[in-house]
UniProtKB/TrEMBL annotation:
Protein name (Swiss-Prot/TrEMBL): Uncharacterized protein
Keyword Nucleus carried by entry: no
Protein localization: Membrane
Stretch forming the signal peptide: none
Membrane topology listed for this record: Multi-pass membrane protein
Cellular compartments per GO CC: mitochondrial inner membrane
Keyword Transmembrane among record annotations: yes
Length: 86
């Protein structure tokens, strides 16, 4: 009834007030970047797009994912370093 109509009006008002993202905004920024930086910009944009997180959260999540992906290399490096010093 009336509650559904009011909720519909509110949802429409909120949806219309949120600006659409500029298409290719990150691609334009990454176009002149050095390849590793451009790849990182695209990775952050992909995470932002697929998760719907804010930019700051997308950057933080990207950092956590990269640090997690690097753990095996860090452990291997530490083990090889221990063999040299022992």
């Amino acid at each position: 009834g009336e509650v559904d109509a009011a909720a519909s009006v509110l949802v429409d008002a909120v949806a219309s007030s949120v600006p659409a993202p500029f298409p290719g905004e990150v691609a334009a920024a990454a176009a002149d970047s050095f390849f590793p930086f451009a790849a990182l910009q695209h990775l952050i944009d992909t995470i932002h797009t697929f998760t719907g997180l804010n930019w700051w959260a997308s950057i933080a999540l990207t950092a956590v994912l990269i640090r997690t992906a690097v753990i095996p290399f860090t452990v291997s490096h530490q083990k090889s370093g221990e063999k040299i010093h022992v």
